[in-house]
Amino acid sequence: MIKALRGMKDILDPKFLKIFDTAREVAENYGFEYIETPILEETSLFKRSVGEASDIVNKEMYQFIDKGGNDVCLRPEGTAGVVRSFIEHKFDRAGSPKRFWYFGPMFRYERPQKGRFREFHQFGVESFGTSSIYEDINIISMAADIFERLGIEYTLKINSLGCPKCMPSYKEKLVEFLNEHKNELCEDCQRRINQNPIRTLDCKNQSCQAILKDAPKITDNLCEECNSDFEKLQNGLKSLEIPYEIDKHLVRGLDYYTKTTFEFISNKIGAQSAIAGGGRYDRLVEFLGGKPTPAVGFAIGVERIMDLVEDKKERKGIYMGALIEEAIPFIQKHAKKAREDKKVFVEPNIKSLKAHLKAADKGNYKIAMIVGEDELKKGEFFIKEL
What domains are defined for the chain? Predict the structure, then answer.
């Protein structure tokens, strides 16, 4: 028997569509437009955006040479493809803001565990062309609205990664600290000292965490502009009554973030507690060959939140069934008209009344409409509310 590949699953849970419908509706209410980018992209796109020093590029990408000799990979995340599209369609030259939402599968070759698969799905949003900190607040507010509509409790953590003015001097202080403790750090953190020292702050190794709690904090080294924006971010969240915590070690896992960074976490899904994350990435469009464009966004891990969404078995729609074969065309005719504004299922097999009502109940339909010989003669239905 052929089975699904390890880390890849069939989706049979209707909550998947509920998450999609809810997130889409909220994003469109915020004025965002739909975008769909290819699942397969050039590998160089992610090496330049996500960063060659990242675990995604080093260890996790589904990368191969196609029959045309092109180095390609299945997308491991959504932002880079949207940025590529933004540049390719010359939106960076238009000068006006663009705001997109997307939904689709991503792929990372990592060890499967609860809420983390090799094929997983993300709902994400990206806003281009607005440098205002108030757009960051809009973005965070959107994610909070999605979780509230889905009935998901969360903790929001925020941080600032600074900008090209304050980040270089902070990196020097951090590298100096890391080199002093180099022999005590794990192999990954030792490698990151020269490649991407900021990522050491995100290390999950407990011995590294014990050392890094004394490391210099970026929020203590922000320039005047970044510090002002970070205060405005906090005030804006308070104004919208969105509770938050400052996490000075929150850096996110990708290289392209600057200034605002944030994560929504849940304490109900075990060790993999992050259910959404994002932030500002003002330099990524330029890194990928576009005109310098400020940008901010987030992504929600759909599989991460599936178990957190309440499964309300609300009865919906109409079940139609026939006791005699001659009644089926009559039923199909009425079903076609009713489907203009209702969910209607027609059972194609002849069954007893009891069997039809049992099937309608099992299918979670609100109303059963059955036609037998007497009903057909009168041109009407036997109706049972379930």
Answer: 15-166+222-308 (3.30.930.10), 318-385 (3.40.50.800)
